[in-house]
């Protein structure tokens, strides 16, 4: 079956530090990959996505590259801000199932 | 506000009572999904509905839980005889109708947080 594995949190960084949140997946077929972000007390919002191998999704300074050879979709940002503090979820969708499969989420805390 | 609307935002129930959670999808969306988020855990799929049809309920507990998306009105997730383990955030998401392959992109509501005393 499909599954997503994310690095354990919480991740605590100082403002302007470099961020990497690891995500690997197992899937049948050729999944689309997503990063969603959940700010405190809110629902999830799509952050970025990639639909095929070697695609790079980017938004708000965040980037992730779909690596089929390593089945990974790591999230990166060169310089985090306090406002980036949130929980980040990696997810996949294969199209043969009707649902997104989410990782467990990684909490990011950015301090001044 | 044209987003996914969920209510109530917070619901407190005693063990054995019923909980009803409502979700109005984004305008023009005909697909509704319910997910459950337990404390400190990720989102777990529960059910996928289209108008008047349950498409996939593979994530729904076999007992006490039911969902509907009537022709008119919001989608409703119903939990009968709640127990403490039902305490969680329940998120609804919607997606537009598709003429072919789903993209997998979902639009989420802000969630309904159920607390069972």
What percentage of amino acids of chain B are in beta strands? over 45%
For the termini of chain A, the CA-CA separation is 41 Å
Strand coverage percent of chain A? over 45%
Low-confidence stretches of chain B: none
Distance separating the two termini of chain B: 33 Å
Task: Describe the sheet with the most strands of chain A.
Answer: 6 strands, mixed
Mean pLDDT of chain A: 92
Report on this structure.
The complex is a heterodimer of chains A (112) and B (117). Chain A is an all-beta fold and 112 residues long. Helices cover 0% and strands 50% of the residues of chain A. Chain A is built from no helices and twelve strands. Chain A has strands spanning 3-6, 11-14, 19-21, 23-26, 32-38, 44-50, 56-59, 62-65, 75-77, 86-93, 101-102, 106-111. In chain A, strands 2, 5, 6, 10, 11 and 12 form a six-stranded mixed beta sheet that branches. A four-stranded antiparallel beta sheet of chain A has the order 3-9-8-7, with no helix packed on it. In chain A, strands 1-4 form a two-stranded antiparallel ribbon. The model of chain A has no long low-confidence stretch (mean pLDDT 92). By secondary structure, chain B is mostly beta strands. Helices cover 0% and strands 48% of the residues of chain B. Chain B contains no helices and eleven strands. Chain B has strands at 5-7, 10-13, 19-24, 31-37, 43-50, 53-56, 65-68, 75-79, 88-95, 107-108, 112-116. In chain B, the strands form two sheets. In chain B, strands 2, 4, 5, 6, 9, 10 and 11 form a seven-stranded mixed beta sheet that branches. A four-stranded antiparallel beta sheet of chain B has the order 1-3-8-7, with no helix packed on it. In chain B, strand 7 and strand 8 form a beta hairpin. Chain B is globular, with a radius of gyration of 14 Å. Chain B starts with a strand and ends with a strand. Classes of the chains: A mainly beta (112), B mainly beta (117). Chain A binds chain B through residues 32, 34, 36, 41-46, 49, 51, 89, 91-93, 95, 97-105, and chain B through 4, 6, 33, 35, 41-45, 48, 55-56, 59, 91, 93, 101-111.
